[in-house]
């Protein structure tokens, strides 16, 4: 089926869905396949649940006119998203980076929404499936689209750019994330910079933090750059005032008090202010958006659990973000501090050295009692009683059941797979 014909079917539907557990009435269902599932088998169930049409790529399942047979469902989903994006004729801003993507995306969304009707990536649906779904959620009311792009291998950002066709873009930072797929920090820089490559080639605008030498270097040959930060005399000029415990900054002479914990969030806020400034959002509206934004989903949240205060930053972790969190925690003027750190995933051959590096940091920068959880941390060499290791979460749980933690200031940080938010249930 040609994409134009499929598009007429799409316009008759209320939304797009890929999960039969989340079917909405009159949606367009895409029967995606994975290593452990075949969406074609669930197409009939999707129709029974209220879907208007089902896109399938196995002929035996296309039994009537409600089934749309294509060569490859995923490829069709991506092409339909690009076609739809072209019909909308709206500016699309894409962002990627090693750390802070989702928080930055939400901050940008909050700022731009003060002036425009915006549609942004939901949650972290930022891969080769999530990006098309985000684009297909945009409609004639959308004035600006915000698309988060994630990657753990080379050429993935390049693919996502070819789908979303962004007009603007930014990279939050370059850090030691997904080293299993990228191989090294240089590999990370090269892969993430595929966004810069696309924007430069098509003479689109790049937002650059001029406090980040890698960003500056990677965009030297880019014809259209909007700079921001503490060094620039153009765009938004920003200065960090404090982060005890929330980030407070100076924005062109005005003090802005955020609800985000961690010095590292200064750059995330700076990006959102720069984007808002470029798109001529009112100065006061930008400040209101930043100050009203409340973090969720275990991202830089400050929570209170009985007598304890917790910095909950357990949505994800890599060596760069974990060290940044520890550096911030070290600076906080609190008593009875403790850290709970979970394994960092997708580090490949560097896993052993990177986890040992965190332990070495803790030994040279004591932050109170430290609890390390996971198989990688369990293998590290520890030379102090101030660091306790637990191979599994259940081991930590058993220890905490017989140990009282009261009136403490805690940092909880780990990869998503560690699910360290479970510690709150014990506390």
Automatic annotation (TrEMBL):
The record, for InterPro entries, names: Mur-like_cat_sf, Mur_ligase_C, Mur_ligase_C_dom_sf, Mur_ligase_cen, Mur_ligase_N, MurCDEF_CellWall_CoF430Synth, MurE/MurF_N, UDP-N-AcMur_synth
Compartments reported by the entry: Cytoplasm
Query: In which residues is ATP bound?
Result: 97-103
* Source organism superkingdom: Bacteria
Class of enzymatic activity (EC top level):
ligase
What protein name applies here? UDP-N-acetylmuramoyl-tripeptide--D-alanyl-D-alanine ligase
Q: Which EC number(s) does the record attach to this protein?
A: 6.3.2.10
Originating species: Gelidibacter salicanalis
- Primary localization class, coarse: cytoplasm
Q: Which segments constitute the Mur ligase C-terminal domain? A: 299-415
A GO BP entry: peptidoglycan biosynthetic process
The family line of this record is: Belongs to the MurCDEF family. MurF subfamily.
Q: Which Gene3D superfamilies does its entry note?
A: Mur ligase, C-terminal domain (3.90.190.20), Mur-like, catalytic domain (3.40.1190.10), MurE/MurF, N-terminal domain (3.40.1390.10)
